[in-house]
Amino acid sequence: MKKIGVLGTGTMGAGIVQVLAQNGYEVVMRARHQESIDKGMAKVEKNLSKLVKKEKISEEDKAAALGRISGSTELSIIADVDLVIEASTENMEAKKALLKEVDELTKPECIIASNTSSLSITDIAMSTSKPDKVVGMHFFNPVPAMKLVEIINGLLTSEETNKTVTELSEALGKTPVQVKEAPGFVVNRILIPMINEAIGILNEGIASAEDIDTAMKLGCNHPMGPLALGDLIGLDVCLAIMEVLYTQFGDPKYRPNILLRQMVAAGKLGMKTGSGFFDYS
Ligand code: CAA
User: Which of 47, 120, 127, 150 is catalytic?
Assistant: First the structure.
C-alpha cells in the first residue's frame, strides 16, 4: 500500500489526509471544488504547524508530509491508487454515485473504504462491481488525535480486504475494532443518542448549555460536554445519523429532537459554521 486517494476534504477528509501523509503514504485528495481542496490543504498545514510549534515534529517532517499530498477536482487523480478512502457527505445516493465512478476509474485490485458514520456498507458496496473489495473504515474527529478506527465488513467484504485496512489502521498508530454492520455501528449508536438527549434537556429548559456540558464533563469525566461535541462533529452530521438510527430501527427512542432539526434548518451547524450551541466566531 503506497498511494491512497481520499475523497472529500471536509472535517474528516482533511484529518485522514494529514494522518496518512504523516505516516509516509502518498496521498491524492479530491473534492468537487478547488476552494475545498485549498481549505483542506490549509487545515493540514495549520495542524502540522501546531505540531512543529509543540516540537512534536520538525519543520522537515512537516515539509515532507505536505510534499506527499496533492489535490485535484478531477476524479481521475485516483486512477492509480491502491486504496480509496471515501469521506464525502453522509448521503447514500451521493456516495453510491461517487463510488460507481471510482470503481470504473481505479485498478481492479484497488480497495474502496468508506468513512461513513452510519450507512450500510453492503448497500454502498453494491454500487461497485467488486463488493468484496469494499469495507467500512470509520475514523473519529479530530482524526489526528483520536485513536479509534471502526472496521466494518459489508455482507460481501472479503477477509483479505478487512485485513488490509485493519493493518493500515495499525500502521497509522490507531486501534482498530471489528464491528458487524449495523446502523451507527458501535460508537455512534451510543454517542449520537446521548447528544440528542442533551439537546432535549436544553430544549426543555432543564439546564443551560454551559451547565449541561459542565455536568457531563465533571460528572462523567468526558473530555468535552455533549453539546460542544455535537458542535465539533457538526449538527447536520448528528441529525443525519439520528435519522438513520430512527428509520432503520423504527424505534421512537431515536427520534431526532426538534431543536436539533431547527439548528440544522437555521444553518447553525457548529464549529464549521462558527455557531452551534456555542459561538466560535
Ligand atoms: N486537529 C488535530 N489534532 C487535534 C485537534 C484538531 N482539531 N484538536 C486537538 N488535537 C490534538 C492536539 O494536537 C493534542 O495532541 P498532542 O497530545 O499530540 O499534543 C491532543 O489532540 C489533545 O489536544 P489539546 O491538549 O489541545 O486539547 P484537549 O486535551 O482539550 O483535547 C480533544 C481536545 C482531543 C478534541 C478532546 O477534547 C476530546 O477527546 N474530545 C472528544 C472528541 C470525541 O469524542 N470525538 C469523537 C466524535 S464522534 C465521531 O467523530 C464519529 C462520527 O462519525 C460522528
Answer: 150
Closest residue by Cα to atom 14, ligand 1, is 145
- Whether 204 is a known active-site residue: answer no
CA distance 133 to 178: 16
pLDDT band at 89 (very low <50, low <70, confident <90, very high): confident
Q: Assess whether 76 carries a catalytic annotation.
A: no
Q: Which atom of ligand 1 is nearest to the CA of 12?
A: 50
Residues whose CB falls within 8 Å of the CB of residue 125, separated by 6 or more in sequence, listed in order: 112, 131, 134, 154, 156, 157
Query: Top-level CATH class of 187-273?
Result: mainly alpha
Q: Which of 18, 16, 23 is nearest to 1 (CA)?
A: 23
Q: Whose CA is nearest to atom 21 of ligand 1?
A: 145
pLDDT over 90 at 77, yes or no = yes
Q: What confidence tens digit (pLDDT) does each residue in 34-43 have?
A: 999 999 999 9
Q: What is the pLDDT of residues 219-278, one digit of tens each?
A: 999 999 999 999 999 999 999 999 999 999 999 999 999 999 999 999 999 999 999 999
Q: Give the integer Cα–Cα distance in Å for 146 and 194.
A: 19
Q: Which CATH number fits domain 3-180: 1.10.238.10, 3.30.70.2860, 3.40.50.620, 3.40.50.720?
A: 3.40.50.720
Helix segments in 29-137, DSSP class H: 34-53, 59-67, 92-105, 121-125
- Residue that the C-alpha cell 483542506 belongs to: 40
- For the question of residue 141 being annotated catalytic, the response is no
Q: Which residues form the pocket of ligand 1, taking CB atoms under 6 Å from any ligand atom? A: 47, 50, 54, 56, 117, 140-142, 144-146, 187-188, 191, 223-224, 229, 233, 237
